[in-house]
Design goal:
Length: 220
């Protein structure tokens, strides 16, 4: 590896400390890309470097007010699961899950009611990709205006509701294409898209590849 991502890890810890969700994930991706760029490093070495990344996350969460015992127990659990992963894709996914868990531990009592609402919306979107609800529906249930919820969502998450849902779909599609043998039309349906051509066009815009080409490249 040409350089170790020290400055990125410092940024990552800071993002977690202040519960900045999207910046944290983006910074983690950049750090993992640097680790993966070292073609000579085998998976066990990459895992070791990822354990160091997780340590910076732990410190950031602790500075943000997370319970010492709880966050440390989760950290030990992460290290155990990290050792069990058999490929780099699974390692990356595990680190992103750890980021989300760490941020949820950062002073939840200090989060505003709107931040808590947006957290619940994000969780619901993740669980209901096949039957997504609109922002207007969430706003109506919460008793707030759609415009206000839209502004708060963008400020808190770092991207609009529509963009966030699109990114979630693309990431879920990536996983299903590389980890399952599901047909493209089945994946589209599981993502709440009835028209497979709509899914194919959207996936191509986001990745530069058709679903079939993406599957072929990454399964190889």
């Amino acid at each position: 590896m040409h350089r170790y991502p020290w400055e990125l890890l410092v940024q990552l810890g800071s993002h977690i400390e202040h519960a900045l969700v999207e910046p944290a994930h983006e910074t983690l991706d950049r750090a993992l890309e640097l680790i993966a760029d070292d073609a000579s490093a085998r998976l066990p070495v990459r895992k070791l470097r990822c354990a160091q990344v997780a340590s910076f996350c732990l410190r950031g969460a602790h500075r943000g007010g997370a319970s010492s015992h709880r966050i440390f127990d989760q950290h030990l659990e992460l290290l155990e699961h990290l050792a069990q992963q058999r490929n780099w894709r699974a390692v990356r996914r595990l680190l992103h899950q750890w980021i989300d868990r760490a941020i949820r531990q950062v002073q939840p009592a200090r989060h505003t009611n709107m931040q808590k609402l947006i957290g619940r919306i994000r969780d619901d979107l993740e669980r209901s990709l096949d039957s997504p609800r609109t922002l207007a529906q969430y706003a109506s249930e919460a008793g707030v205006s759609t415009a206000h919820l839209s502004r708060c969502f963008t400020t808190t998450v770092g991207r609009s509701f529509r963009e966030h849902r699109r990114v979630q779909r693309t990431e879920a599609a990536r996983r299903m294409l590389t980890e399952t043998s599901l047909k493209v039309h089945t994946i589209a349906r599981r993502l709440g898209l009835r028209d497979p051509s709509q899914f194919i066009a959207q996936f191509r815009r986001d990745t530069g590849l058709s679903p079939a080409a993406y599957r072929l490249r990454h399964q190889r």
